[in-house]
Amino acid sequence: MKVDVCDVCLREGKLTKRKGRYRLKGHRSLSLDYCANHLKSVPKESIPYVQFVWRIKFGLNITAEQAKGSLKRSI
């Protein structure tokens, strides 16, 4: 059985079923599952969103320049 969990909750050590998923076209690795509690914490602009995903999924704080570079690469 497959269960999709909120990536933000998973980073916090909790297992919460996801409500939805944010995606950036052409960047599969930058998709982020979220629950109802974390819906408003996910940034809507692309650069802050990329920084947020890197912090949640990979545990890294990247600069805006690094985020722009990440968007230039198609994944």
SSE arrangement:
Elements: H1 7-11, E1 20-24, E2 27-34, H2 46-58, H3 64-72
Antiparallel strand pairs: 1-2
Helix pairs in contact: 2-3
Describe this structure in words.
This protein is of the alpha+beta class and 75 residues long. The chain is 36% helix and 17% strand. It contains three helices and two strands; from the N terminus they run αββαα. The protein has helices at 7-11, 46-58, 64-72; strands at residues 20-24, 27-34. Strands 1-2 form a two-stranded antiparallel sheet. A hairpin with a 2-residue loop joins strand 1 and strand 2 (27-34). Helix 2 (46-58) crosses helix 3 (64-72). The radius of gyration is 12 Å and the shape is globular. The termini are far apart. The relative contact order is 0.19. The mean pLDDT is 90.
Key features?
75 residues, alpha+beta
Summarize the model shown:
By secondary structure, this protein is an alpha+beta fold.
Gross morphology: globular
Number of strands: 2
β-sheet strand percentage: 15-25%
Order of helices and strands: HEEHH
- CA-based gyration radius: 12 Å
Mean pLDDT value: 90
